Amino acid sequence: MEWRYRCPACGFEAEPEPVLWQCPACAGELLIDGLPDRAVDASAHAAGIWQFESILPVETPSAGTLLGEGDTPLIPFHVDGVTILLKLDSLLPTGSFKDRGAAVLCQYLKRVGVTRIIVDSSGNAAASMAAYAAATGLECTVYVPASASPGKLVQARAAGACVVPVEGSRDDVAAAAQQAADSDRTASYASHNWHPVFVEGVKTWALETHRQLGGQLPDAVYVPTGGGSALVGAWRGFGAVSRSLPRLIAAQPEACSPIVRAWQEHAPVSRMEAGPTIAEGAKIALPSRPLQIQRALSETDGRGIAVSEELLIDTLKLLWSRGVYVEPTGALGVAACRVAITNGEAVPTDTIVAHVTGHGLKSTPVIEQIMNESV
Question: CATH fold of 74-95+198-374, please?
Fold first, then answer.
């Protein structure tokens, strides 16, 4: 399969290279050009996300999947008088939607001869990249915020990754990982926030949703958004099955909502220093894919919605009370949908999908604190 990297900012193009993750000309984001426009029937041994091999940048693993990634449920959920559909990517092997991107990225890097990867993460990607590195036989070092949820770091260590805590901001963590990769030419920086192959794996959540809806598109899709891979993945995934796309809504916490602010001001995405929020997975001051994020919103008549901590906590309790055990970041899409329902922007006649991105077991200390404060 022939495909190339392209920078949407300056137009730089390059053949795939194991160590290339950022535009060397302008330090901007990269995307992939040259994959087929439309999915075709999968090979007989493919399963899960690999049913969409024809529009992925790497071939299906010989066993059909690596860890059983994909085929997550799409279930109805009644909220504020409207029935919506929850795409439960919280039920992927490591409990996060990032398994989709990690599976494809690790498979790709293994195929091109990489033996060691360096990543940075606030938690979920650490667990996911560590697990899929183990499944593909890659050595993995993960740089994480010192304040990240302990459960996520335990997952990464259990998979054999070397976990390096970094004091400071999320930007400090990324800088430390990039510096380590630059100084070690035997390693590849496999950032979920930057690497374009990662997004190609994530887009399978939209392809599955389309298939689960009987080949129909939803009217609106609410996506928890930090670095933007789930939103950009939805844009690329739905775009692979139809030229008419559902409305995409980027859901962010009010405490850190640079995408929402840019949408409201009709301006480029700029840095927004994060305030306190329980949605730690969306606490990213400046997303690495701003041009793709804004194009996704523009081309789908989408928008950004900022969610207050009060509404996020109320939404979490609602989900938990009905058996959907989700981490705080994973509830942002449902919470944003509730804002839209209140404003009359989401109505019962719409087919509405909310992406549920992470399992509650990821955030036991935070959830315990919320429950204790409710007593």
Answer: Rossmann fold (3.40.50)
